[in-house]
Each structure stands twice: as structure tokens, then as C-alpha cells.
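Quick one - first record:
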Amino acid sequence: MRILFITATRIGDAVLSTGLLDHLIRTWPQAKIVVACGPVAEGVFARMPNRAWTILLTKRRLRLHWLELWREVGLERWDMVVDLRGSAFSWLVRAKRRVVMRGGRQPGPRLGHLGALFGLDPPPLPVAWFNAADRSRAALLLAADGQGGEGRWIGLGPTANWDRKVWPAERFVAFFEALVAPGQPLEGARAVILGGPGPQEAAMAAPVLAALGDRAVSLMGSVSLPEAAAVLARCALFVGNDSGLMHLSAAAGTPTLGLFGPSRVGEYAPSGRRTATAIAPGSPALDSMAGLTLDQALVAAQGLLTQGLPA
């Protein structure tokens, strides 16, 4: 069976689509799947089972990226085309079955919309694919100073692709200090700071790194997405702004707290086995993170940490 799977340009949406891919792989274990995605999301699928190859959809003027995709796949015959972009492209290739997501923004959780394409309720949770080499790399990165240890790290994601999604840096620092204080469940834990490449995200993370000093390890822009997933899987907790990294953490099975402004949490809350959100009050039109207090985030984190622990 041959499947063409057209998914997102952004990391977060791409991660959310992995649950559907996992469902397809389990349903048709002999299938060969070609993934078409945006360049920044390529790493999400790098370790995916049954992946034949990945096609990078780099946006072009006049939508010429669709023409480039057709040149690669248009003459093939597909058993199934799954199009999460809601484009007309899926109707221009030969396919026995087409599953096309409706275009435009829809109310309700994004994950539910994805599951509904195949009548899956509840929808399949996202997964994070990484291999033994990624696990070894993660272990090395977190043990390079001789102090690392599985379960004794708190992952922090103080960046986002938009500054209005970003919780103030000083609150990230105070949050970490409170979690690792004497008598707390994560007493003595250290921080691993993750984020994307580039000066904008580096500037967002810089105050947190400066305040935490040698209690933090920076992996800003220095690891692949599979390596980041392996690092996150070793963390006792991840706390971060609404971002692709937050979704990757939840997919890796890490207890994940997503920090949100007053909009879009209903659509993009983290989806995983152990997740929670802390939401700033206020108007969705303003969408400010300034109203999200330290106490709100700590209460949400403590509730997340106690899930599954013996009474």
C-alpha cells in the first residue's frame, strides 16, 4: 500500500498529525508512506517507521510549491492520499481513496478534527519518534558535567514564534526556583533550556539562562527534533509556551505544562498522556501572557506532578 500524507508547515501542527500517521502504520503495517511537509517540520518525521521519503514543501510565489509537489508525485498512483492542508491538490493526483481536511479554522481541538477524518473518537495521541542514537545523544548531553540523571531534569521552553505567546522570563526563573526548593518533589533538579535556532529565540531565552547559571544546560538550536524528543523523554517535567516544542514534549510522554494566553488553548492545548495548561485571564483579542501568574502555573504543575503518584 502506498500513501501520500500531506501535512503542516509548522512543527506543532506536524506533531499533532503524528497520531494519524501512527494509526495508519498500525492499520496497514506494510504501507509505504511519503510525507510532504514544511522544511522546519522535517525532523518530526525523520525516524518515522514505514516512511519511504519526505518531500519538503517550501512556499513559493503564486503557489508554485504545489506544482513542484505534483512533479514529484503527480504521475504516481496512490492507494490513499491524506491531505491535512485542505488543498485542491489531492484531486489532481490518481488515488483510490482521498481523505481531505476541510480548509480554514474550525472550532474545537485540532486533534479532534484530525481524528474525525477517520472516524476516530477519541483521536489517536501524537507520538515522538527517535532512535537509540538519539537516546544516546540525549544521555550524553544531560550527563556531560557528571551531574545528569534521568528524571532529575526540568525542561523549559521560554521561547515561541510570536512574542505575545511568551511568558515573562523572570516568571520562568521564579517557577523553576519554586519547583526545586527544599521539600519539593523536584528538589535539586536542573533545567534544560530548549528552543529553536536564530537570534530572536536566543534573545527570549537569554535572561532565563543568565539567571539560572550553571543550574541550566542550553540546547537552544543545537539539537535535531528527534534528539530534542529524546532529551524531553528524560525530563521529569516540561514547562513551556505554546509552541511546537510543547507539542513534541507531550508526544514524547513527558508530563507537559503548556502556558497560554486567553486565546486558542481550546484548539492547541498539548495532547499526551500527562498534560495540563495554565491560561492567562483576559480578552482573546489582547492575547496577553502578562496576566498568567506564578501561582497559577505552580498549581497546574503540582497537579500534573502528582498524577499517577501513590496516595
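second record:
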Amino acid sequence: MTSDPRAVLTRPAPAPDVTVAYGEHPDQVADLRRPSGTGAPRRLVVVVHGGFWRHEYDRRHTDPLAAALAALGHPVAQVEYRRTGQPGGGWPGTPDDVLAAVTALPRLAAEALPGVVMPTPAVLVGHSAGGHLALHAARHVPDAVAGVLALAPVADLAEAYRLDLDGGAVATLLGGGPADVPDRYAAVDPRSVVPLPTRTVVIHGTLDEQVPIAMSRAYVAANQAAGADMRLVELSGCEHFGLIDPEAPTWSKVTSALRSFGEDH
């Protein structure tokens, strides 16, 4: 593993097999990867990338993650969505795009990957801001989500606003703070409604400097107290980007959590 944890963001990876569109905007697309091998059918894994919802970060930085998951036998879809700093991004386009993608992708993947058997619904894997969007989808379209693997998610937007994560990223997404646009926070902040109705595993590194682990601890504790099927896996010595790096020593923890979403759930 490289000494620079951000190296995964630009590491080359095999190209996806096909790209499908779930909307008319050029960023309303998803890259699909066929699963390797001939093992038992597995659910579609929908990868929702992070980057604090900003247009500077797109799905390409999750290529190593997606390729590794496909190599393990999972059909994979990497979702793109409109982001802040580009037309249609922010409120409400960014969260709406992910809801549309999660709803449409099982059908689109089945059509674009003939011969690949994918039990439905899909499992969502979201990192950082993508973790927020995955939790948002599980809340609003629960029938389309078999489970959520949230990797260092921004699970409390009001707290992220208070902490000024990534220099005002939440205010840029929603157009202000909780006192300015309370209805928007109520609609998309995972912390505003518990319990989450979907089985969820949250993984967070103790050395994360981008999204503090205290946020996941509080979010999971609140959901567990309300009866949610949710657990937190804390990774000692892991920072923010090791969670999406197949070459990181923590990768086995990520794949183990994904396996916990068996086809019997």
C-alpha cells in the first residue's frame, strides 16, 4: 500500500463494461461492471461516490473500489449525479438524482448485462458524502434498498454544517444552514429521522480527519436506541480514504461487512 492514502483517488483501474443513463443530463448516468466468476448470484452493488457533493469529484475515484468488488463476484453500478458547482446540482438535484438512480438501476443493469442474475433489491455502498446520499435513499425509497454499507458517512448534516466540514460544503449543497432552510434539512439530513428502516452497517476509521467518527457513533447509537438494524464498525488506525482502497489493510473489513448482506435478507 502506498504511504499516501489519497493515491487511491487517481489510481488506474479497469474500465467499466457499459454506461447507462437514468436521466437526460450527462451526469445522470452509471457505469456497470460484470461480476467475475460463476458463483452464486449476488445483489447489484450500487456505489455512491463522495467528494462533499462538489463537482470537482466524480465517480472515477471509485474505479479501484468498483473493480475490486466486481472481481469478488458482485455486479456493480457506479452512480454519477449532478453536484454543486454545476447546473442542476445542489438542492434538490443532487439528492433527487440518487433516488432516481437507485430506483432505476436494477432494471437498467438487468437490461445492459444480459446473463447476469441479480436478486433485487440492490445493496448501496456510499462513501463520505456518498454515504449521506445512500442513507437518504434508504430512507426515502426503502423498497429499492436491501442494505446500506455506509463508509465514513456524513450522517448528520446539521452537525456537519456546524463543524464547517470541507469549508461550507453542506451550506453549498442545501443553500444555507439549519436555521435558514430547515425544511431542506428535515428532508435530507439522516439524523433528522430515526430509525432508518433499512439494514445498515456503518464503517468509520478512528483517524478520519475529513468526517469525524463521533458523527457515526452518535448516529448509530440513536438508531439503535430507536430499534434500527444498524451497527458500527470502528477501524483503529484507519483514515478517510482507506475505506475505499482495495490495497489498504482495512479492505477485508469492508468486504466482510458487504458479505453480511446475504441473499436471505
